[in-house]
Amino acid sequence: xxxxxxxxxxxxxxxxxxxxxxxxxxxxxxxxxxxxxxxxxxxxxxxxxxxxxxxxxxxxxxxxxxxxxxxxxxxxxxxxxxxxxxxxxxxxxxxxxxxxxxxxxxxxxxxxxxxxxxxxxxxxxxxxxxxxxxxxxxxxxxxxxxxxxxxxxxxxxxxxxxxxxxxxxxxxxxxxxxxxxxxxxxxxxxxxxxxxxxxxxxxxxxxxxxxxxxxxxxxxxxxxxxxxxxxxxxxxxxxxxxxxxxxxxxxxxxxxxxxxxxxxxxxxxxxxxxxxxxxxxxxxxxxxxxxxxxxxxxxxxxxxxxxxxxxxxxxxxxxxxxxxxxxxxxxxxxxxxxxxxx
Length: 342
Hints:
By secondary structure, the chain is mainly α. The protein is about 65% helix and about 5% strand. It has a two-stranded antiparallel sheet with strand order 1-2. The longest helix has 25 residues, at about 145-170.
């Protein structure tokens, strides 16, 4: 394709030179450079002026031509301010299409469990088996009571499953949407909203299990449960921007998909899900330096009727601000290059 483009441009310049001798046609082996300016009117989210620079060489290499076209096409003459405006417009536009990604998420769940006898009930059965198998084994290993350990395991395991499943799906959000990103215009953020909504639907199928276990073990409603509302808001905001950042990195570096899966498998054992922070005794700092522990705690503690620690709130808010900022900056700078990474 690069050779065809080069030949077409050379013939085009030769024909212009025949009609107007004042236009200099590039000679093979010469060092002349020809600049083309294209104006895109009526095409949304595309810079008005996009320049393409072609050097008059006999046979340009694929890497050089790709670098020229990619750098000029992706960025054009857009400033950093324009890129941030386009990124924010993309985020708002994707959110405004809530009916579209809401419908697509629901249809995808139905398609995933088509011709299944139990459908999403398998998720509920998996949660029941997990809690019953480990809920009576680990209390004997850790030397704690089943009544106090089982609610902690049920809620913590549920939240960890939601977190790891969403990270796995968000890492392939752009990769699995390659036909849409390459052949039509659509807001990039729409696919992150879709992944977040899809995992929310799946989480609602499993949520009754940890709640029922907590009620069965004597955890009653208290005023501390209202802290779950701001904690859930932090989870949604952090989840969206973390998914956006992870999707871009995984699209550029495909090994990141496997790295994310391995990291969450390892994090399951170093985060207080199967064990409690109190069981570390003098080594509680291992849990305190883990940001995933604080993210779990701000939502697990209110569900269990406890007030989250101020340290957990501070860490969760700081992580949310940092990840959101990095995600918006990266999305603004690299948003236009996403189709070229697919």
